[in-house]
């Protein structure tokens, strides 16, 4: 609501908004995408390359690779790592880097704010608020800033749902996350009765997301400061050694949005593939002169050979070796 310039999402994708409540859940989209590259059966992922419920606590990185240590004591080794944790997790102490990230990287991470955005859903036995094509939102004026201010009903999107949604942000979100749902329900009902009178029914159910207190999220999305520049985006996105960073906070145009995370993931993957291609070429250039010198020590066996064809597996593994080279 306070964006000075047109929201980039509207500019690129249009201003129409859609509410989706598919009973299969949001992760259904992820599973459909995963089917393109993982082994699945009847909608279930059976690919043992995907390790679920592994809490990464430490990344050790060097010029030769990355070692990943998880909370349950397992250790994984990789040539490269793509890290897609949120900016809130990067600012927390969940994940340790060894060696510590360089100062320019830490400064960029610290400068990016984390937005906490909480949509609280209330279910009622019947509808008591005004509704219609031209009625969807109402605002509560209170002396305390952000106290159950912004309300929306679901009747236009889902007639008969009898649901209200109230949006809290930042400090109010953190306060509500720290208390019991029963207390939040009591506060919300007091606000509604202040607006609609004492005879409205009690809500029969409540849903309070806790993005801030979840150690794997630590906030809802990134919120870059008003005064920022391209260098800040570049430093947050830039790889450190063999660790590549991605996520909605690395999208300069669509940070804060789901499609920002999706598109950033594509960009980061392409950047990593390009880095792997360069590494492959550099190792090939190193290997060919070495093989040539070895070959020329036996002139009688290689009289007319000028170029070596090196098996792909020799340099994809990241290790230099020549025993199986084809001369």
UniProtKB/TrEMBL annotation:
SUPFAM superfamilies on file: FAD-linked reductases, C-terminal domain, FAD/NAD(P)-binding domain
Show the Pfam families listed in the entry. Amino_oxidase (PF01593)
Pathway-wise, it operates in:
Amine and polyamine degradation; spermine degradation
Q: Which cofactor does it need?
A: FAD
Q: Name one GO biological process term.
A: polyamine catabolic process
Which chain regions cross the lipid bilayer?
none
In the record, the note on similarity to other proteins reads: Belongs to the flavin monoamine oxidase family.
Entry-linked PANTHER family:
FLAVIN MONOAMINE OXIDASE, POLYAMINE OXIDASE 1
Q: What is this protein called?
A: Polyamine oxidase 1 isoform C
Q: Which organism is it from?
A: Glycine soja (Wild soybean)
């Amino acid at each position: 609501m306070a964006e000075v310039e047109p929201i980039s999402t509207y500019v690129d994708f249009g201003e129409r908004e859609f509410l989706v409540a598919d009973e299969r859940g949001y992760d259904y989209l992820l599973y459909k995408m995963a089917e393109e590259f993982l082994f699945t059966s009847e909608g279930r992922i059976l690919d043992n390359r995907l390790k679920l419920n592994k809490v990464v606590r430490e990344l050790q990185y060097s010029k030769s690779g990355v070692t990943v240590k998880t909370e349950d004591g397992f250790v994984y080794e990789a040539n490269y790592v793509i890290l897609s944790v949120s900016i809130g997790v990067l600012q927390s102490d969940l994940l340790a880097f060894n060696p510590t990230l360089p100062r320019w990287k830490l400064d960029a991470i610290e400068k990016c704010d984390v937005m906490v955005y909480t949509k609280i859903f209330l279910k009622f036995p019947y509808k008591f608020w005004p509704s219609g094509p031209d009625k969807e939102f109402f605002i509560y004026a209170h002396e305390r800033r952000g106290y159950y201010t912004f309300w929306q009903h679901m009747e236009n999107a889902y007639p008969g749902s009898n649901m209200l949604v109230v949006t809290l942000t930042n400090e109010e979100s953190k306060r509500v996350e720290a208390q019991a749902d029963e207390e939040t329900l009591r506060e919300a009902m007091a606000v509604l009765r202040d607006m609609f009178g004492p005879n409205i029914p009690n809500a029969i159910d409540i849903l309070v997301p806790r993005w801030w207190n979840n150690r794997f999220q630590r906030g809802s999305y990134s919120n870059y400061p008003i005064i920022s520049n391209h260098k800040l985006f570049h430093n947050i996105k830039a790889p450190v050694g063999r660790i590549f960073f991605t996520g909605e906070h690395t999208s300069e145009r669509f940070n804060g949005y789901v499609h920002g995370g999706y598109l950033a993931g594509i960009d980061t993957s392409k950047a990593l593939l390009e880095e792997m291609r360069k590494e492959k070429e550099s190792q090939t250039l190193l290997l060919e002169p070495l093989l040539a010198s070895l070959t020329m020590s036996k002139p009688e066996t290689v009289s007319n050979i000028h170029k070596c064809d090196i098996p792909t597996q020799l340099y994809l593994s990241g290790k230099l070796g020549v025993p199986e080279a084809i001369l």
